[in-house]
Design goal:
The strands form six sheets. The protein has a six-stranded mixed sheet with strand order 2-1-3-4-5-6, sandwiched between helices. The protein is built from 18 helices and 29 strands. The protein has 580 residues and is of the alpha/beta class. β15 (316-324) and β16 form a beta hairpin. Pfam families: CbiG_C, CbiG_mid, CbiG_N, TP_methylase.
């Protein structure tokens, strides 16, 4: 499975009735995919090549190769091509594996047609990240360095500062100190991470991090050519590469300035705007009272460059002060990297209940932190070189602090929890410590309650309450008040952490509180190891449930006064008006 969206325009080309049936299946799933017709199938394929972002051909691979070979131009602009055989057994990523997205598209096609994706890109075949899949522009000797990584040769990773890169294989080792100016006379390979212009050589690939923000000020009606020419001249004179531009930034009154917006569009970066009051609050080296009188702030270009995308000027360094032409002004700031903390819910345990986004974040991380038994569930999806920080039960705070510390050091970190990481899991303790140095990504997961509810039937069809019976962190008198409130409110009640060897009386006490507000035949469901080996579902009532069958691997669901058993399944009616 892949969590990437398919390309915007997909051309489907088929020669036979079977191929058209398979094409119809894809067209039904993707409204932006359409069957391309022509006088011949070759004409249809050539038309699709010219007008689509991707082509899926239900033809023989050899035929597709012969037809498109004369059309090949540049892998960065050619459409992706996926070939599917007549029986839809295989979806072959033929062209544009990384650059065009054909590898991901082949996996999506295979999902829809129940086929097998065939991906021959070398890095994908051995589960290594391709340099062109890390999310940043990559330049230089990409093929040579990629080959060295694949062959297990030593590759030095050299970065101006630590950036939250995904896991890289063990033969890619960080160099000591800032050595971006080193040569490769020793015959070794390098992977540089820098926004600086680097002389090209045959053994160096350069990743361009999104570290630069160009602040732009302009007179009304400034030509795009003037803005573009000034920006490129400023970057070149400072030895900075345009591929590291994160965005252009300006005052909000310039948001509709065509010359600025066209420059951002041509560079493929967003245009970020700030109100004059925010700009005026930024300390800049070259304020201007003339500018203040005109736009309400003493600086546009310098202040906007420092604010960047998130308004944190204290993380930025002004590299180039304002430089002006007749109608345009440009300044450039470098923004420090922020660590990345993905808080990932793994779901209840079964691999097929783990979301594609969770898998993508695990493969995006360089460091994965979690409970040992949860890490065992996902080791097979981690990339080679991923550092794993494992700990046992009861070390929640230590895990949270470790994950935050790794992210604060500039790394890409995934902190995992079962179910949804925000429900009685790791998100809350981690985010208590995560400060503004860290970008946080939340990845929701299927909760234990949802997995249990699906096994029991539809007990959560109306209002319900989640309660943890663990008094390790919450005093029992607080828990008791909350159970009483749920009982009096007639909520379907779900108990997490219901009973352990050391806490064997709390569940009985909670059931007694609910029994005072429920009929004795109110259904109760106990689900143990939902979606995992040893899964067990037990139905009882408030009056008959034996708490001794419950443990910490269980979720207990107590119905409301409306919950009933229908064909052995718990159902809480929604109460739709049409039912009456």
């Amino acid at each position: 499975m892949t969590d990437q969206n398919p390309p915007a325009r997909i051309g489907l080309v088929a020669a036979t009735a079977a191929g058209r049936r398979h094409a119809d299946t894809l067209a039904a799933a993707w409204p932006h995919a359409r069957l391309v017709e022509g006088e011949t199938v070759a004409d249809a394929l050539r038309t699709a090549w010219a007008v689509c972002d991707a082509v899926i051909a239900f033809l023989a691979t050899g035929a597709v190769v012969r037809i498109v070979a004369p059309l090949l131009d540049d892998k960065r602009t050619d459409p992706a091509v996926v070939v599917v055989d007549e029986a839809a057994r295989h979806a072959v990523a033929l062209l544009g594996g990384h650059a065009g997205g054909a590898n991901a598209l082949a996996e999506q096609v295979a999902d829809l047609l129940d086929a097998r994706p065939v991906i021959t890109t070398a890095t994908d075949a051995v589960d290594l990240p391709g340099l062109d899949t890390l999310g940043w522009p990559v330049q230089g000797a990409v093929a040579a360095v990629s080959r060295a990584i694949l062959d297990g040769e030593p590759v030095r990773l050299v970065a101006d500062v630590d950036w939250p890169l995904p896991a890289l294989p063990p033969n890619v080792r960080a160099a000591d100190g800032d050595t971006t100016e080193e040569d490769t006379s020793d015959g070794g390979y390098r992977l540089l991470v820098t926004d600086r212009v680097v002389p090209p050589d045959e053994r160096t690939a350069v990743l361009r991090p999104p570290s630069l923000v160009a602040g732009v000020g302009a007179s009304r009606g400034v030509p795009a050519a003037e803005v573009t020419e000034l920006l490129h001249r400023v970057l070149a004179e400072a030895g900075l590469d345009p591929a590291s531009l994160r965005c252009l930034a300006t005052a909000d009154i310039k948001a509709d300035e065509a010359g600025i917006r066209s420059t951002a569009d041509a560079l493929g970066v967003p245009l970020v705007t700030w109100p004059a009051t925010r700009l005026a609050a930024v300390d800049v080296p070259h304020p201007s009272e003339v500018v203040r009188a005109a736009v309400g702030t003493p600086s546009v270009a310098e202040a906007a460059a420092l604010l960047g995308t998130d308004g944190r000027a204290d993380d930025a360094t002004l590299l180039v002060g304002k430089t002006a032409t007749a109608m345009a002004t440009v300044a450039v700031a470098r923004h420090a990297p922020r660590g990345r903390l993905a808080v990932v819910g793994l779901g209840p345990g079964a691999a097929d209940l783990r979301t594609p986004r969770a898998v993508a974040e695990l493969r995006r991380a360089a460091v994965v932190v979690g409970l040992d038994q949860y890490l065992d569930q996902v080791r097979d999806v981690l990339r080679p070189g991923t550092r794993v920080l494992s700990s046992g039960l009861g070390a929640e705070e230590a895990r949270a602090r470790a994950a935050v510390a790794e992210a604060a050091a500039g790394r890409a970190v995934a902190l995992i929890g079962s179910g949804d990481a925000g429900v009685y899991a790791m998100a809350s303790p981690a985010l208590e410590y995560a400060d503004e140095r860290i970008d946080v990504v939340g990845v929701p997961g299927v909760t234990a309650a949802l997995a249990a509810g699906a096994l029991l039937g539809a007990p959560l069809g109306h209002d319900h309450a989640y309660l943890s019976l663990s008094d390790l962190h919450t005093p029992w008198d607080v828990i008791e008040r909350r159970v009483t409130a749920a009982a009096e409110g007639d909520f379907v009640t779900l108990f997490y952490n219901p009973r352990s060897r050391a806490r064997d009386w709390q569940l009985g006490k909670a059931l007694g509180i609910l029994a005072a507000h429920r009929p004795p035949d109110t259904p109760v469901g106990v689900v143990r190891n939902a979606s995992r080996p040893g899964e067990r579902v037990h139905l009882a009532t408030v009056a008959t449930l034996d708490p001794s069958i419950v443990d910490m691997y269980s979720v207990v669901v107590v119905g409301s006064t409306d919950t009933r058993l229908v064909a052995g399944r718990m159902v809480t009616p929604r109460g739709y008006r049409w039912r009456s």
